Each structure stands twice: as C-alpha cells, then as structure tokens.
Fold each of these.
Amino acid sequence: MRPTRSFRPAPDSPRLALLRRSDRTELWTETVGREPSVYGERWTESDGRPYRSFEPTRSKLSAAIVKEWSGPVPAPGEAWLYLGAASGTTASHVADLAGPTGRVYALERSLRPFSRLLSLAERWPNLIPILGDAREPTTYGALVPPVRGVYADIAQADQVEIALTNAAHFLEGNDGCVLLALKTASMGRDATAVQHVRRAEEEMAQFLDLEPSVRLDPFHRGHYFLGGTVRAGRLPGAVPTGPPPLRERSRERRRR
Ligand SMILES: C[S@@+](CC[C@H](N)C(=O)[O-])C[C@H]1O[C@@H](n2cnc3c(N)ncnc32)[C@H](O)[C@@H]1O
C-alpha cells in the first residue's frame, strides 16, 4: 500500500504538484509509469492518482523549478525531444508532465545508460528511447515527428549549438520551446562560468524570447538553466554547427 497525500496541482502545470515548506520545496509529478522507482524517488497517491517525488538534487529541471524558473515546462499532450536522456531520471518526469497523450523522444548516445532507458520505456508507455548522437539529427530524423519542445542536458562544449540545431530540425512549425541545462565546466577554461552563461544567452537570444536564466547551485554546481520560446520567423533551418571542438574530438577517440 502506498502512503497517500493531498496535492493541489500547480495552476499552469496540472501534472506537477509543488509544496513550499519552510525549509525546502517538494515537487511531485503525476506519473504515467509503473513501479519500481527509477532512481530511489518516493511514490505516493493523491485523490487516487499516482505521484513520484521529483528530486532537485537529481534533476536539473526539478532544481530549476524549485529555484523559480519562470519559463515553459512540458505540458500535457505535448511531444518533446529530450537530448542526453542517460538512464531516464529526468526524462521519466518529462514524460510524466507530458502525460498519457504526450510523447517524449529520448535520445542517448552511450550504450550503458541507453540499455537502462530501454527497460524504463517498458514501464513508461509515452517514452520512446532513441540511440543516437545529438550532433547528427538527420540520422534520427525519421524517428522524431515535429515536437513542441527540445530539452537538452548533454554537458558538451557545443551544447548550445546542438540544442538550437535540433530545435531547427524538429520544432513544430518553427514554433515552440527550447530548455537547456547548461554545464559551464564543459565549455572550456577561457572564460568564467558567468561569461559562459552570458555567451550562451546571447547565442540563444538570436532565436528565442529568453526567460531569465536560473543558477542551479547548490543542487548542481556550475550548472544554469536557460531557455524560452522561439521568436516567430527565427530558426529558419539548420543552425550552423561545426565539428566538435578539438578537446571533445580527442575524448570521442578515447571512447571508441
Ligand atoms: C548529464 S547526463 C544527462 C542526465 C539526464 N539528462 C538526467 O537528468 O537524467 C548527459 C548525458 O548526455 C549524453 N550525451 C552527451 N553527448 C551526447 C550526444 N552528442 N548525443 C546524445 N547524447 C549525448 C551522455 O552520454 C550522458 O548520458
């Protein structure tokens, strides 16, 4: 028997429950999945509906919401492309937020987390795992229909270009949202974390109406949450993305 709670869903996000306590904020998503728990999160019920705790220490999206991210979040019925799904910690919550009529196309390039993502998808009917490299959207283009949003958490030096290029390929009618969990430590030592964020914001602001970025410390050190809604008429096609920077290429070679 699961414990029961009484949640009031967030007004603008009906599958999200947010409880502000004096010492912390609790987030829960109404789940479309089946137990067991994905990463040790708690399960409960409210009004006969199953919920999972959405832990800010484990998910950058949860941390962003706890830290008052004011921009878009996945909503019921929407389709999202998720870049860097790993084994599905956050992707499972994005799928919860998208609900039974929404879809999450969850891309991951490393085999080990991808195999866990595959078994997660057996319990999350609206989560579609795709093995692929986010730098090569044409290789998985046939598997992803037009989507409402692109969520990127790939911790790469060229993470901004990758997110924007995928947005240009997959956002429905050149409209929709881009959310990016930015890891500044992956962006080189030629600039401070704040400078990296400012550069990322400038690049994204060419295409998006950006929401105020959120710093994810202390939940995720050196990470920021950026994003917004595509400005009409922008993202005309592929956003230019060069080859990965040298440092990244030598890492790729070591991985092979
Ligand atoms: C920080 S982890 C993602 C954590 C995950 N988003 C979560 O919150 O549950 C970054 C992931 O991005 C994946 N990744 C990195 N570069 C990628 C690329 N070019 N294409 C697809 N996945 C990539 C890595 O293999 C890794 O699993």
Note: Residues 55 and 167 are 27 Å apart (CA to CA).
Amino acid sequence: MKRVLALIGSPRNLGNCELMVKEISRQIPEEHELRLLRLSDFDLRPCRGCYACLFRDQGCVIDDDLSLVLDEILAADAYIAAAPAYFLGPSSVLKRLLDRALAFYAHGEQLWGRPAVALAVAGIRDREGYTQLGVESFLKLLLADLKDSRVIYGALPGEIFYGEENKAVAAELGAALFGARRHSTAPACPVCGGSTFRFLGGDRVRCMLCSNPGSVSLRDAEPHFEVGEGAHEMFTSMEAVVTHREWLKGMKERFLRERKQLKEITTGYLEGGTRVTP
Ligand SMILES: Cc1cc2nc3c(=O)[nH]c(=O)nc-3n(C[C@H](O)[C@H](O)[C@H](O)COP(=O)(O)O)c2cc1C
C-alpha cells in the first residue's frame, strides 16, 4: 500500500492544517496509509552551516530528531505539506527542517520526483503573504513533483469547513496527488507552475519557485509569463540536482585552495561589536 506522508507545520492538534490533510487523504482515490508528521513534535535544531553532511556517510553532525524525520520522508511514496501562515509566511518549523535539507541530497536519486501537494492555511483572506510559495519551495527542495498547490482561509480550528468550498479544494488536491498535475488557469510559470515572480525591470521577471528568468507581456489584457529553463534553475531535473550537489562538494576544495586569502579578509573583522550571549 502507498504511504502518504503529511508534513504538518502547525503545532495545533486538530487545527486547520491537520483537518485539511485528513480531508485530502479521504479524497485520494488510491488506497494508502496516511502518516501524520507534526514537525513541532520533533527536536529539529538549526542548521550549523558546516556542510559536513555532504561528506559524511552518517549524515548531519547534530544529534537531534533529523534522522527520524528523514527516515519517514525516505519511506514515503508521496507528500502532503501543510503550513499555517504565521506573520505572512509559513510557520518556521517548515524552514527549520528545510535548512537541514543538504543532508537529504545524499538520497537525491531516491527522493527525486515523488508526487506532492502543497497547502497554505491563512486566518485572514488575502493575508497569506508568501506562505504558499514557502510550502511549494519546501516540497520542491525535497525534490518532489508538485502536483497542485492551494491557499485556503480559516482562523479558528475547524472554520475552514464552515462551507463546502474547501472540501472541494481537498477533492482536487486528493485527485491530483497520484493523478495528473492540475494546471491553474491563473498566470503561472510555464516551467514549474509557480505563481510568484520578482519583477526585474522592463519586461524581465524571475520565477521565485524554480529561479528561472523570463519575461512578462499582456495577452488579451492578461499577464503572460514566458520563462525558459536557464543557467540558474532550481532543480528542474535530476541532472540539475546532481550538478548542484557536485558544485557544493567542490566548494570544499575551493575553500581549501582559497583559505589563506579568505582568512586575511575575515581576520580584518575580528574586532568590532559587543557579542550578545544568552
Ligand atoms: C503567530 C501567528 C501568526 C499568524 N499570522 C497570520 C498571518 O500573517 N496571516 C494570516 O492570514 N493568518 C495568520 N495567522 C492565523 C493562522 O494562519 C490561522 O489561524 C490558521 O488557521 C492556523 O492553522 P492551524 O489551525 O492549522 O494551526 C497567524 C496565527 C498565529 C498563531
């Protein structure tokens, strides 16, 4: 039986994220086991930025619950990632796990292309900020195949189901997970389906999900984005993942080569400021 892993960014038991995840699961036509992983239940410490996980067989050097979470991720066939909007972005536990994702890339080939759907839950209509982009990025950087992505609204736990609207959204997300990717009718990046862009001046844009550059124009009074796979793309293929992983590993050699020059720069900043400690 397929395993669907729900990665939940809300600490609230039976909160809106959990309810929606369970409703999506009920609407998945394929038989599956739903596993609920509430990220706040786990001891996930901040990444130290040491890059050791790229070179160690045992993964990250920090002794916390990362390996438990990673084992669940590795054992899954598909993901539902759900996070509440906290101050215009996804709750920070999602990012805390994502910051540790360099440790996942040793398993890149195994993780690549698993189906996933993204869900952002915001309490106030139109006040989700970048929450949806945050959840989408989380899944994309987990090397998943993003089948659909939505933002829904509801503040009090359960409020999302006052009407039938969000049950219909759950049905679409449930159908998309192991089915065909849903193509939004709204303007979107043709490479990855992302809907958040940075405007770079003139008609130039960059998709904030796949990082590819492109342009925007008006067609029949609607914005139309033309984006092509480019030099700075973020994981549009497994080859791009391998290239990025090798590039990161190469940084160690570069660091060793340039260590003296870098030290001259950094030691110039030894003095200055009073360090605040706990
Ligand atoms: C600390 C905090 C910050 C929040 N910030 C936002 C926000 O910026 N925008 C918004 O629409 N809702 C915000 N909310 C409301 C939640 O997104 C909303 O209640 C949501 O349903 C919570 O999902 P949950 O029940 O799964 O925890 C915030 C809630 C909390 C606790």
Note: The mean pLDDT is 95.
